[in-house]
Design brief:
Order of helices and strands: HHHHHEEEEHH
Strand order of the largest sheet: 1-2
Radius of gyration: 26 Å
Oligomer: single chain
Helix content: 40-55%
Structural class: alpha+beta
Largest sheet: 2 strands, antiparallel
Number of helices: 7
Strand content: 15-25%
Length: 257
């Protein structure tokens, strides 16, 4: 338990060297504007494709004559769900998930413990104690329906302010007295795996490998409290966050930016 927000060590921050923030920011914004313009056709094609089989609000089928039936059978949806179920079974139907081979005789007693620990991390600890199933479920659904998807692995520390109320009886007056003790608690500190929305990712069209692309950007949606927490941790620049929040309050998105 800490009294103040724990800052991220300098050695764990990226980048680890100083740079011209304004120059880099201007260049990144220019690249994003160019990519946003270039991918408008792709976004429209994706919208039309998904609407063709994943939209049941309005019938898209037109009958051969007036007042003929326009029943829309979700055949594509049924095939996608069947393939999705097979992929889920391929990932989670195998037991055990891991095979730990001891390298020395003295390691034999630790094999079962390591297997249990790795299984616990993926099913009960990762992703804010929710496990990996829901993330892989969404990731595989994107692969089945869109043909590709991306996963992002990162480390996150969640800190929360806690106020503890203590009550005691005053020995002199005999009255009940209360006092508040404010502290910071780390409620989660571990790995997070998340599915990246395709609309929030920007990469040049000539590249199909994120690691080899000269530029890749992931747009984040954060609340005001999230941004202020990153400032307190020493990860975000306080002046930049203030400008972002001022612009967000004037927009129709509220505290989202």
């Amino acid at each position: 338990v800490e009294k103040e927000i724990k800052k991220v060590p300098e050695s764990d921050r990226i980048p680890k060297k100083s740079f011209d923030k304004k120059a880099v920011g201007a260049e990144v914004l220019e690249i994003l504007r160019t990519l946003a313009t270039d991918r408008q056709e792709w976004l429209q094609r994706k919208t039309d494709y998904l609407t063709h089989w994943n939209d049941y609000l309005e019938p898209t089928r037109i009958g051969p004559w007036a007042e003929s039936a326009n029943v829309h059978l979700p055949l594509t949806m049924q095939m996608c769900k069947a393939l999705h179920a097979k992929l889920i079974q391929a990932f989670f139907g195998v037991r055990p998930w891991f095979f730990v081979r001891p390298r020395e005789k003295m390691d034999v007693s630790k094999v079962e413990l390591k297997e249990q620990f790795m299984h616990w991390c993926l099913t009960n600890y990762i992703n804010y104690y929710e496990g990996l199933f829901d993330v892989l479920d969404s990731w595989l659904w994107e692969i089945v329906t869109s043909g590709w998807s991306m996963l992002k692995l990162r480390w996150d520390r969640v800190q929360r302010k806690s106020i503890t109320v203590k009550e005691s009886i005053n020995e002199l007056s005999g009255l009940m007295e209360s006092s508040e003790d404010e502290s910071i608690k780390i409620v989660f500190d571990g790995p997070v795996v998340e599915v990246l929305r395709q609309e929030d990712c920007y990469m040049m069209a000539n590249y199909d490998n994120i690691q080899r692309a000269p530029f890749f950007a992931h747009r984040l949606w954060m609340t005001e409290s999230d941004l202020n927490l990153r400032v307190a941790e020493g990860l975000f620049d306080s002046e930049a966050v203030s400008r972002v929040l001022d612009a967000a309050r004037k927009s129709s998105y509220g505290d989202r930016n």
